[in-house]
Amino acid sequence: EPEVTQTPSHQVTQMGQEVILRCVPISNHLYFYWYRQILGQKVEFLVSFYNNEISEKSEIFDDQFSVERPDGSNFTLKIRSTKLEDSAMYFCASSGDRGRDDSNQPQHFGDGTRLSIL
Amino acid sequence: AQSVAQPEDQVNVAEGNPLTVKCTYSVSGNPYLFWYVQYPNRGLQFLLKYITGDNLVKGSYGFEAEFNKSQTSFHLKKPSALVSDSALYFCAVRDYARGNTPLVFGKGTRLSVIA
Questions:
Q1: Which chain A residues have a beta carbon less than 8 Å from that of B32?
Q2: Which domains does chain A have, with CATH numbers?
């Protein structure tokens, strides 16, 4: 069964540094998402991406965050200047087979990148 | 605004006994409801969904969930629990009327199945 893959599995970064988290969504999916899960807390939506642009973003997704689909397969999340409170598990998800309405389709999640800010 | 409540942080059940993990939701329109499971150091795995139709939906690994519109609930159930079912379970909702929107998750319920 096709999977969403995320790299790296664990990223340790100094506060103030830029970090890029990478995701390869399922190949025929059209909708892409980033979520995060701070340790012990709920999964929170960050941003959704469709047709090469952001379709929705949460208040967490401020100017320090950006997303990009640089080629036909990768979907990246960049944090420009990391803060201690950015430490979390970041999950990429994808959904929406070509030609199908996405709203009733489950999102498929990667195993996440654990981001630790020192 | 959409929201999901999972009132129990932890559910303990003996192996072979039935299990229930509770979920209630709030949306302005009609809900699309989902259950996901998370094993240690893994992402969220889709278990089942309710979109429309039969209120009892069946999913992976013998799990099922019952949609109750009057009680705005979508409780996850399994007739006979296995030790391997021990994991973190998340209920999620999206509002049908709003189309392609992000999932809103509950805070999760940790299920421990004891041999």
A1: 103-104
A2: 5-98+109-117 (2.60.40.10)
What was the pLDDT predicted at A90? Answer: 97
Is B97's Cβ below 8 Å from some Cβ in A?
no
- Classify the phi-psi angles of A14: left when phi > 0, otherwise alpha if psi is within -120 to 50, otherwise beta: beta
Pair B76, B89: CB distance under 8 Å: yes
**pLDDT tens digits along B58-90:** 999 999 999 999 999 999 999 999 999 999 999
Distance CA A39, CA A69 (A): 27
Per the DSSP assignment, residues forming a β-bridge with B53 are none
Domains, chain B, with CATH or none = 3-114 (2.60.40.10)
Contact between A36 and A90 under an 8 Å Cβ cutoff? The reply is yes
Task: Report CB contact under 8 Å: A104, B102.
Answer: no
